[in-house]
Design goal:
The complex is a heterodimer of chains A (117) and B (110). Chain A is built from no helices and 11 strands. Chain A has strands at 4-7, 10-13, 19-25, 32-38, 45-51, 57-58, 67-73, 76-81, 90-97, 106-108, 112-116. Chain B is mostly beta strands. Chain B is 0% helix and 55% strand. Chain B has no helices and 11 strands. Classes of the chains: A mainly beta (117), B mainly beta (110). The interface between A and B is medium-sized, with 23 and 23 residues.
Chain lengths: 117, 110
């Protein structure tokens, strides 16, 4: 089946630093990837839609200058949390949609747990 | 905006009992997907329903999509300890974006 990887799986950083999270589709091409954020005991909230070769589309209330998304290839999207603060601590999950598949199935990565001290 | 609600928020059942979670949307869904997330893990895709009134089964799991395509349910027969986790429905509204439901956390009493 389709596999999506994320790196790193967890990261602890100091307040004010930037953190980059990678999302890769390992055995399929994904023109569209999605970034979600999940706070403890809450549901997944879509942050942005990442489109290969074009600018990401951000959901209402998500700061595009704080959460930089780059989708430079058909298998890789990155999310950079700039100047991270403790309130950015969360579980960040990406998903990828198979470009060839006729279904809307999104394949989720294992997530990255970010803790900002 | 478009929201997807799930009930109940929590469910504790004795092992062997049945479990059902319900998903409701105020507007018509294009399709509905169901995911399971184990504690500390990520969502794992279970199934997608597209047609009005559709019913699909996976072993002890039965998924239904309402006739009006505004609600869905997941029923687990004879729960086992491996069923522990949070079950999310997620719907699309005419585009590729998934809107996740609030989730139902299932715990099993052995």
């Amino acid at each position: 089946g389709a596999v999506v990887s994320q790196h790193p799986s967890w990261v602890i950083c100091k307040s004010g630093t930037s953190v980059k999270i990678e999302c890769r589709s390992l055995d399929f091409q994904a023109t569209t990837m999605f970034w979600y954020r999940q706070f403890p005991k809450q549901s997944l909230m879509l942050m942005a839609t990442s489109n290969e070769g074009s600018k990401a589309t951000y959901e209402q209330g998500v700061e595009k200058d704080k959460f930089l998304i780059n989708h430079a290839s058909l298998t890789l999207s990155t999310l950079t949390v700039t100047s991270a603060h403790p309130e950015d601590s969360s579980f960040y999950i990406c998903s990828a949609r198979d470009s060839v598949s006729l279904t809307d199935t999104q394949y989720f990565g294992p997530g990255t747990r970010l803790t900002v001290l | 905006g478009q929201q997807v609600m799930q009930i109940p928020q929590y469910q504790h059942v004795q092992e062997g009992e049945d479990f059902t979670t319900y998903c409701n949307s105020s507007t018509t869904l294009s399709n509905i997907q169901w995911y399971k997330q184990r504690p500390g893990g990520h969502p794992v895709f279970l199934i997608q329903l597209v047609k009005s009134g559709e019913v699909k089964k996976q072993k002890r799991l039965t998924f239904q999509f309402g006739e009006a395509k505004k609600n869905s349910s997941l029923h687990i027969t004879a729960t086992q300890t491996t069923d522990v986790g949070t079950y999310f429905c997620a719907g699309t509204f005419g585009n590729e974006k998934l809107t996740f439901g609030t989730g139902t956390r299932l715990t099993i009493i052995p």
